[in-house]
Amino acid sequence: MSHLTDDLLNEYLDDALPARSRAEVESHLAGCAACRAEVAALRGLAAALGDLPAPALPADLTRAVLGEIAPAQRGWPLRAWATLAAQVVAALILAAWLAPALQGGGAPLSAAWGAVAAAAAEIGSARPLPTDLIARAAERALDWHIPAPIAALGARDWLAAIAAAAAIWLVGSGLLLRLPAQHHEERLEAHR
Amino acid sequence: MGRAMWDAGPDERALTERAQRGDADAYGELVRRYQARLFQLGYRMLGDPADALDLAQDAFVRGHAALASFDPARPFGPWIRRIALNLALNWRAQRQPASAPLPIGHEGGAVEPADPTGDPEQIALAAEQRAMLQRAVLALPAPFRAVVVLRHYHDLSYEEIAEALDIPLSDVKSRLFRARRQLRGALEGQQ
Question: Looking at beta carbons, which residues of chain A come within 8 Å of B152?
Fold first, then answer.
């Protein structure tokens, strides 16, 4: 008597056989210890799989999911806007400092303080929007004489200007670029 | 986890229809109902609780994006499970879980099945055997593992598995039987 095939045994255990085949398998099993042992081994495997533990859900996902799908809550967090604003202000101060020198004037530092003081006074009185400030800076930029005597700036001024611009760019961009990663970490944190 | 757990509750159709109209609370309720099941599916597929949680969350976010294509006359469970399965099958291929540490009953609130003998040696042996089996399950290629998970933990029939994975019935059988041979080999090799 040949033994039952692997397929038949599996389908028998998975209750996937039509009634007639099932009866045939059962009558074979009644007289075949080897096939009964096979069935027992498959049952043992199923039981062992069922015994494998699984951790319980460690965190409620509802808020995280709703947070991710809500279009209104998307976009940059407040921190990103604050960083961008700081970057814009720092750039404006740098521009105010450089402007007189680019226009051929001397003593860029004192002129810069004057510009900052004027801007501060303006902010205090009119509370302009950041967009106004940018527009005003752009207006001023248009007034600049681009081929101004760059030599009017001393080497130290140049170094300071380049260092300041690099610092604004590197620090600001670095902070902005780190934001998505922090977002992800916060999401992971929320899981714990 | 039996099949009954994936069946739709009586008010589910109303919920899914509200969710389709953009009601976030309704979708939140669906997340609450199915999150534990998707997490378990993810854990069985990926072997890591943190990955399983990420997978469940991603599945719900994708499910929400695809909600317009969902037929509310059908149950939500199998639909969202299919999304989770597809994610699990494509889960960062470079981080296959075969070599990942396996938390067997020692973290994440896992429950050790009680051993009636109470013999420490027997308990240790049983724990070792479970660890071995879990490693063997995770060492299966993901398409094989998916069939094993759906058959043994979701109690799906061959036909239901074929539909859930969008593969022919013959593939369901060949994958399942081959996977079982491999798992038996791992279990018997240990004894």
Answer: 46, 49-50
Give the distance from residue A83's alpha carbon to the nearest chain B alpha carbon, in angstroms. Answer: 29
Question: Residue B50: its chain A contacts at CB < 8 A?
Answer: 188, 191
Cα-Cα-Cα-Cα dihedral sign, residues B88, B92, B97, B101: negative
Contacting residues of A for B24, CB less than 8 Å apart: 66, 69-70
Q: Which residues contact A164 (CB under 8 A, 6 or more apart)?
A: A90, A94
Checking if the pLDDT of A125 tops 90, the result is no
| Start-end of H helices in chain B | 12-20, 24-46, 49-65, 76-89, 120-139, 142-152, 158-165, 169-190
pLDDT at A73: 44
pTM score above 0.80: no
Q: Do A74 and A84 touch, CB atoms closer than 8 A?
A: no
What is the spatial distance between Cα A152 and Cα B132, in angstroms, rounded to a whole number?
A: 77
Of A46, A53, A58, the CB nearest to B104: A53
Task: Report whether B190 contacts B136 (CB < 8 A).
Answer: no
Q: How confident is the model at residue A47 (pLDDT cuts 50, 70, 90)?
A: very high
Distance CA B9, CA B28 (A): 15
Number of C-beta neighbours around residue B73 at 10 A: 8
Q: In chain B, which residue's Cα lies nearest the Cα of A189?
A: B50
Alpha-carbon distance A108 to A25, whole Å?
A: 98
| Distance from C-alpha of B145 to C-alpha of A101, rounded to nearest angstrom | 71
